[in-house]
Amino acid sequence: MHQLIEEALRFAAVRHDGQFRKGTNIPYLTHPVAVSMLLVEDRQPLPVVAAGLLHDLLEDTLTTPEEIEERFGSEVRRLVEAVSEPGKHLSWEERKRMTVQHVQTMQYDEVALLAADKLHNLRSIRLDVESAGRQVWDRFRRPLRDQSWYYHELLQAFRPFRQTTTLIESFETELNLLFYGVADERFEKLGKLFDVIQHGFHEEDWLQETTTLCQTAYELHEAMREGYRHGTDVNQPELDGLSAQLKEAGL
């Protein structure tokens, strides 16, 4: 292990001692370690990997920017400061909006660090939801709807940087698994129905006869995505009605 990384790991272990992941008994240190591993996989340079280990110190401990610079250098300080949210005195919504807006002005390595952080958060939530159910969202200050808004806004902010790091593609994959996952049987069912209609596009006569049906399916498909994204229910009779229409059309 490189000396810089070992020192950063030791420092993070001391400063995060006694802290745990939200709503669990999992030591908080597991998060920065996982973030640093994602950065290694993304072939980021050592200062970025070190910043991955230290990225939450300014927000969650009494560590100062000057202390980070003295121990790890100005580059690591820049990275950690870049991904640290503004003061706790601001509301959750204000802090999240500022984070999203800040992405536009970030350097490539700062975006990679932020993406690794949020990617691991999404992955952790998904695994918890798969094992414990949707009550996992009760751990957070804001409900599923607000969390979904935040992560989707981040994805949009990340898109211009897709060619600079593989982590953004992984972030999008985790977002889709969490908010549109096949664990929701209704969404899986609608996806299959929509696939059936898409196959019909190969037959011109069939398409002309079922234009309204195709439009209905598309609108319902989009409504389902939005509904699951915001944690609201989709009209089940509409879904059943579409299924019946498909059967009548011979599909």
Task: Give the SSE layout.
Layout: H1 3-15, H2 30-41, H3 46-54, H4 57-60, H5 65-72, H6 74-82, H7 92-103, H8 108-132, H9 144-158, H10 167-180, H11 185-200, H12 204-209, H13 211-229, H14 236-248
What attributes does this structure have?
single chain; 251 residues; mainly alpha; Hypothetical protein af1432; 0% strand; elongated
Q: Name the shape in a single word.
A: elongated
CATH class of the largest domain: Mainly Alpha
In DSSP terms (H or I, runs of 4 or more residues), the helix count works out at 14
Q: Predict the CATH topology of the largest domain.
A: Hypothetical protein af1432
Category by helix and strand content: mainly alpha
Distance between the termini: 59 Å
